[in-house]
Structure formats: structure tokens, C-alpha cells
């Protein structure tokens, strides 16, 4: 067999000879040897030693070996971190070896706004093309379904977090920290999350097959808290006085706070109930800054 048949996989080889820059490895089953460069190992070997190595292709297309065994190999899936983004190529992913692996443009969403960014996590395996180059391949729904843990009715309304593993116009698919497979309909998000992005939401439905529907929109009380904090922050940035109150025009509120008049009134009402603000002649004041 050829070493080409083992690219992207782990193989046990024997040290045939040592060179100044590394070791040449082979075994009785393969037709050629491969270089284990000293930059690709933190161990020393002698002729005749057996060693498990991962085979990959370097930047010049040559087969190389490393004693760093990644959790992601051909046919084996795991999470890996995005290391960089190249708009004309795709995203590069760190699987733990000295060379980052490309997830090409054709395997990424059409819209660049939902491409992964540096630090995002994607669930991938490896594939080898006809030129023996290694590329990343995203997990499909059947792969996630094999790995998923079914949710039960007791999980309803629970908060969850996870990473987006697939995106489409109608919504996004999430694999959660608990192992649930979920769907986020476009109506249940304020903005479309990126592929690989970590998001937090809550379970709004459990299907018969154990998959879940997820909402990224905060619960009403959580949304209220966010809005009231935003209003109060703006008020304090103006030394405790702002020319907005519960009778302000809806368009003025939308322009300043990016919220509806109803949301603004609820936020203002919460602050008034807490004794933090009061209204007077078209203005809202902080009690803290206007105490006599």
C-alpha cells in the first residue's frame, strides 16, 4: 500500500534511519518512507523504534508525519477552533498539529456575515482530495443525530448553550453542551448567529425524536432588565437627566434607544418602581443625582 492511503489517519511505523533534521519512518506494508521532522515531535528515537504518527501533507504537498495525534482524523469528528479567516479561501482550523486545516469557501455559508471568526468552534472531520490534500468537512445532521442525547419534557424551558453547526435561510442548528440537537427558527433570534458561534438560549419545544426548538430571544423579564439597564445607563451618562419620558414620541425613542415605546415604558416603569428615577415636564431624572 501507499502512504497516500493513510493521509489524515494514524499509522504505526518503524524508524528506519535518523537524519540531522528528523527520522525516516516506514513499515512492511507501505512502499515508501516518510519524514518525521524534529519540529513535529518532542521525543527522540533510535533505529528500530515503533511509533504511532499522524500523516498529513505540508504546504508543498509532501506527506509528513507528526507524533501529535489529533482527535480529528478522516472519519472521526470533534470540535476544533478557527485560527484565521481568508476571504478568498475560507477559514483555517487548528486541529492541534503544526499545520492548520482549510474549510473551503464551497463548504461555508453563502453569506460571509455568518462565516466563523477566529476563536469560534466548528464540529468537523477530515477529507483528502484527489491531490492528497487535507481539508476540513463539517458534520452533517446524520452525524449530529448519531451523537445527540434526546431531550425529555423535563428539559422544557431550560437555559442552554452550545455552538451553531449549520445555518440556512430558515434558521440555524445548534449542538448544545448537554448533547441536544436543536433548531433556532429565524423568528427566534434578533440576528443570525455565525457558524461555529457559541450562543445561549432556552428550550421552547421538545420534539418526539428528542430534538429541541430553541429561542435566543430573552424571556420577558430578562428583556425588561436589559432595556431598563440600557435606559438607566444613558440617563446616568447625561448626569441624571434626559429629555425622554413615557409620553415621548415612539420614533424618538426608537432612534435613541433602539426599542419600541412599549418596551421603553416598561423599562421606565421598572426604574420608577425601584425608586431610581422620576419624571417631570417631559424629562426623566435620576433620584440619585437630584436629591436635595
TrEMBL record:
Q: Which is one Pfam family of this protein?
A: CvfB_1st
PROSITE patterns, per the entry: S1
Residues in domain S1 motif?
157-217
Protein family (similarity comment)? Belongs to the CvfB family.
Question: What is the name attached to this protein's record?
Answer: S1-like domain-containing RNA-binding protein
Natural source organism: Robertmurraya mangrovi
